[in-house]
Queue: 2 jobs
Job 1
Amino acid sequence: MTRLSGWFAAADRIDKIYWQRDPVMTNDNHLTFRQFMLREYRAHGTSKDLIFLLEDIATACRTISHKIRSGAFAGTLGATDDTNVQGETQKELDVIANDQFMLHCANCSRVAALVSEELDNVVWLKDKAEAGDYIVYFDPLDGSSNLELNISVGSIFSIVELKEPLAELTDEAVLIAGTEQICAGYSLFGPSTSLVVTTGQGVNGFTHLNGTGEFLLTFPDMMVPASTQEYAINASRQNYWDAPVQRYVSECLQGSEGPRGKKFNMRWVASMVAEVHRILTRGGVFMYPKDSDNAAMGGRLRLLYEANPMAFIIEQAGGKATIGGGRIMDVDPSSLHQRVGVILGSAEEVDLLESYYAEAQ
Ligand code: AHG
Ligand code: MN
Ligand code: MN
């Protein structure tokens, strides 16, 4: 047997102890994010590189949260003079959050490329993209129109592992369907900071314990309740909705006397991260459908870094996610900043909406 000595022996021992030992809970029965990921490694063989990347993303999210919490004192509220590739004015914090994601994702040697709402094109971090390399897609700050209002915002990310080397390092090369995601997550910067992650083994939610720098497991195995009495849609767009959405909302509004036979509640935060977090917590359905006003763009929300990661999370939690006539994750992407209709949440409601879309065909 090969005998290792010196630093290598120590490293080998540490590797065995660190990765093989069942993590011990040290924070009042809450696993830290790292302890939880070590369990995932032991149970499902989650890649160590993915775990390191997720820790770097968690650091980016903690830093963004810290900067947002400084509010008006940090001099970071307000717009820049720039617009992103989609013609939207960039906020100071959009740019800061994007920098944080880029900085921390670049730490992982397996990350070949970054795709961001705030970047016109793919940023390549390697000269070659090999099988096993990661592409990270992110919306560094979601809901940024809420920043000045001190209303919740968030960050969204999605990770794809390449099955084959890429022949060319072009924007087209990273147009990969959502079914290929190996991980997705978001951080919600609300009254507390949450981190919610799936690696395809269910959905787990962590809360940042202020002062310790740790995300602790507070919401294990999050599940979307199958039925609900709550929906979320920007009702100011009603004139533009197509028939299936008009019918669904009208039936909800009729309450106990209507065909649904129950009263519905409505919420609209204008931060998809906050809407998805509410749905994971108490159920509901979120709609930002393709309508007659946004149809030329394909919808409002972006497929690769908004719709796909949220669809993966919602499906992993037992819910459903569609474009209004088909599963979001089955969409074959055609451009980097492609937009789609988004309907996601409790399975019974999404199924009902899909049946209305099918009837309207
Ligand atoms: P972003 O701030 O990243 O551009 O995304 C905002 C999105 C989404 O979070 C939300 O559901 C939607 O835009 C809100 O749109 P309206 O302003 O049309 O309500
Ligand atoms: Mn967004
Ligand atoms: Mn954004």
Job 2
Amino acid sequence: MDCLFCKIIAGEIPSTKVYEDEHTLAFRDINPQAPVHVLVLPKKHMANLLEADGETAGALLRTVQQVAKQEGLAQDGFRVVSNCGKNGCQSVEHLHIHVLGGKQLTGEMG
Ligand code: 5GP
Ligand code: ZN
């Protein structure tokens, strides 16, 4: 399958890994929108949140918690975003959650 993030998971395309476990991978976004900008994704390919089962959703949220603590975001806070489909401006069709922090983010949500 011609999926950019599957290639990163397979190690065919390099990335800066932040955290990995059996079901999830977290790495730094190549075009960061904040001092900390990490992508959290399931190792199993699925297009977006609509395809996630409960076990996957739970594993992803646990990794979001882990990344937030590891990156020092727990005290001052952070934002999680998962763009879904056309109106959500999803550009890579492998489910991923953006973890953004390390500065005061704006109040804009869209
Ligand atoms: P989306 O727009 O689908 O929500 O987010 C895709 C994200 O993937 C973007 O923030 C973009 O910067 C990031 N991205 C695209 N290609 C690569 C890549 O090759 N490596 C990494 N680390 N991030 C990427
Ligand atoms: Zn994929």
